[in-house]
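Record pair follows.
FIRST:
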Amino acid sequence: MSPEFVLLALRLAMALALYAFLAATLAFLWRDLRSAALDTNVAPQGYLELLSLPGPGQVFPLNNLNLFGRADDNTIILDEETVSSRHARLSYRGGQWLLEDLGSKNGTTVNELTVEDPMVVTFGDEIRLGNVRVILKGGQPP
């Protein structure tokens, strides 16, 4: 075999490898885009109802991401001294509600279980943030 033929064969092999890599990359991107389009991950309608002070009966509609605390930049502001300024986070991910304590001083519980790691919560669960008790309910707020 002549050196020119070997060089041509190597060039063709490299070109084919490059096109195969590009095709595989496009196939992976297409699959990810399709799965992202199908996974809306939109939270079902729900709300929290206060069971204790600072305002029993008050309701808070839920978004995909909800921050609880005393600070004004939280989604749900709970003006109670046992609630930290950034107390907890309730988010809808992967088709379920997850509650996380954000290092609060007085802790977070779900049905009397202490939240140490992100915990799955469902409609009907009672959540306690410091001394504030709320219940997670489904549907539109009244």
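SECOND:
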Amino acid sequence: MASTLLQGQKLTKREQKHANILSAANVLFCEQGFVHTSMEEIAKKAGVSKQTLYSHFGCKNTLFAASITTKADSYQLNSDIFVDPNQPEKTLSYFAEQFGQLMVSDDALAIYQTCVIHADGHPQIAQVFFENGPECILVLLCEYLEKVSSIGVYQFDEPRHCAVRLCLMLFGEMRLKLDLGINVDDLIAKRAQYLQSSVDMFLRAYRI
């Protein structure tokens, strides 16, 4: 809800509470992980009652899913950027910039790591994360590539596979090192260049 509101638009009391809950949940999920964060803690940090929290989000899984979606929206990784199939060069460059920033953000790393750590005992966490994060982005990108193909300049015969390839290219060496806790100072200066060159290579590969 909060992510769809225009910047500067005055929120109703309910919308403000909704936004506060999501903000508190995101902080605690990143700091403590899903398993070690209680709904009571989230309610306290958000400044709302547990009853209010449950009226907005029926369970912790639902709140976790919403926090992931909201984080993607904060980087504009939603349908709004995939509106013009006539300009894939511009659209995919912007997507790469936003997606690339999200993938190396502290929040993305923290959420991913907590999913991996608890994958054996709480596999539903990883499933919720995948369905509301990576899967949503892949579906949007896949649908966009299908539209681009219909114009006839590029041909993405298996758009799902193509979407996966592009996203994995954009992860790059920086995300790999960050996941392993390795210093990435030597990669920061050329990160933007790497992202753009990945898009250029991707489009060349599928140009008719």
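COMMENT: The first helix runs from residue 13 to 32.
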